[in-house]
Structures are given as structure tokens and as C-alpha cells.
Amino acid sequence: MAPHSGQLKPAVRVENLVRCFAAKTILDDVELDIREGEFVALLGKSGSGKSTFLRALAGLDHEVKGTGTLETPEKLSVVFQDARLLPWRTVIQNVTLGLPGETGQEAGRKALAEVGLAGRETAWPNQLSGGEQQRVALARSLVREPALLLADEPFGALDALTRLKMHDLLRELCAKHRPAVLLVTHDVDEAISLADRILVLDEGRFVEDLRIDLAVPRDHGDPRFAQIRTRLLSRLGVDAPGRRAA
Ligand SMILES: Nc1ncnc2c1ncn2[C@@H]1O[C@H](COP(=O)(O)OP(=O)(O)OP(=O)(O)O)[C@@H](O)[C@H]1O
After folding, report:
1. Where is the ABC transporter domain (predicted)?
2. Measured from the CB, is residue 19 less than 6 Å from ligand 1?
């Protein structure tokens, strides 16, 4: 009965997933299980198909259906690089959209407090910084208590310091709410900082599936952190930090 004991059933099950655009195969017979509460980061070179895969899981790609097994929970939320808030609605209205009554309002206020935006309920999106808008987007996702959170480069547009703060926030929120997560990112350190497991997509397949057993919060100075980084960079075709493989 304990939520984290023993056998966790998969929140996501993908088998034989194929996606082609014109003559080009982007996802080639992909297989993946993500367990309940598992935090998975997805790395890959630009154009390798990360967003295509996430869109398939989000149910946003109708062409992909019917090519294999694609089981995802009904309650899933998606966060993108841009917050995609409705500019004509206040912050609380954005968060509680579709959630009825005082219960919805209360849940919205609680979610905003959790992302550090208590007191900003009646602000308009354009009165918030980019980082604050992403906090609202996270609150909007988590207020629905999703079993699966799909995040496509959610911090890609933020400055380095804000990004680090958002890592802490996302880690805390996920530890508390325990959704399964698929985080698409270009940032190897972000992946190692946050994920239980890291996948690398290349040429239509997962070429790496690495479990990260380091304690959290992760110590970037830990030699094992550096080893994992080197291994992932090598998979991504980078032979040393900052240098491209020939
Ligand atoms: N709707 C589409 N029609 C045609 N080609 C597409 C479409 N969507 C994506 N592609 C192609 O599929 C490939 C994978 O795109 P995708 O956006 O999934 O890559 P990505 O790994 O997320 O890239 P990036 O890291 O640059 O965001 C690219 O070559 C892209 O041009």
C-alpha cells in the first residue's frame, strides 16, 4: 500500500513507436517504460526527435497513433519553453482555468504559493518576469495533480541564475507531487541535476539509458557527476566540455 514500495507500474508504456516526416524516419521503433514517479530526462542533438517524442506522448501528434503501443495516463500536463499564459487572464485565472468554484480557487492559490508567487494572484502575465511566468506555468500544470508531467526545454529561455532556482523548485515540486516526468533538455548538467534516469536519443533510437544514483541535491563537484557528464557528452558527440568531436 505504501506508494513507493516495491513494484511500481509504468506510468508510460511505449512500444514500436515510429514517426516519419516525408521520407525521413525520426523515431524508429522506439520502446520505453517510465515508472510512476520516475523523473526521466531526454537528451539528444538538435533535430534528433526529442520534441517529436514528447509531442507523441502528449497526444499532440495524431499521425503517430496506431503505429504501436502508446499508453499514457489520462492526467498529464505539458510545459513548454514559453509559458503560454493567456494574456487577458490574471495569474490565478490562468492557473485555475477549467477548475470550478472555490475549491479550484483554493487549489490555485495553494499552487501559486508552492511556486513562490503568493500575493501575485491578480497580476497580469505581462507584469511578470520570464521566470515568474514559467512558475505560473508550473503551477497551472501541477494544480491538476498530473500523473505525468511532460516538459519541453522549460528553462531554455531563462538566464543561468533563474534556471538554477527553477531546478530547485522543480525538484521540490516533483518530490512532493511525485508525477512521472519526461524533461526534454539540451543541458547535460540540468539532466544530471534533476533526473533519476537519462536517455539519449540518436538516429531514431535511445542509445543511452542511464540510471543516476547520486544523492539529491546533486553535488556538481562530485567526481561521479563529472564521469556521467563526460559519458553523456561523448554520446552527444562532444569529446570534452566545450569541444566538438572531429
Ligand atoms: N511537422 C513536421 N514536419 C516535417 N518535419 C518535422 C516536423 N516536426 C519535426 N520535423 C523534423 O523532425 C526532426 C526532429 O525534430 P524535433 O523538433 O523533434 O527535434 P529536437 O530533437 O526536439 O530538436 P531541438 O533540440 O533542436 O529542439 C527535425 O529534422 C525536424 O525538422
Report:
1. 12-228
2. no
Would you say the CB of residue 52 lies under 6 angstroms from ligand 1?
Answer: yes
pTM: 0.92
Q: Is the CB of 50 under 6 A from ligand 1?
A: yes
Tell me the backbone φ, ψ of residue 79, rounded to 5 degrees.
Answer: -120, 135
Instruction: Give CA–CA dist 113/90, Å, rounded.
Output: 15
Count CA atoms closer than 13 A to 37's CA, side-chain side: 12
- Chain centroid to CA 168: 14
Cα 78 → chain centroid = 8
For residue 164, report the distance from its CA to the centre of ligand 1, in Å. Answer: 27
Contacts of 18 (CB under 8 A, 6+ apart): 25, 27, 28, 29, 30, 64, 67, 68
In this structure, how many other beta carbons lie within 10 angstroms of the beta carbon of residue 242?
6
Angle at 183 between CA 149 and CA 82, to 5 degrees: 80
Q: What is the per-residue pLDDT for 3?
A: 43
Q: Write the pLDDT tens digit of every residue in 18-60.
A: 899 988 999 998 999 999 999 999 999 999 999 999 999 999 9
Check pocket membership of 72 for ligand 1, CB cut-off 6 A.
no
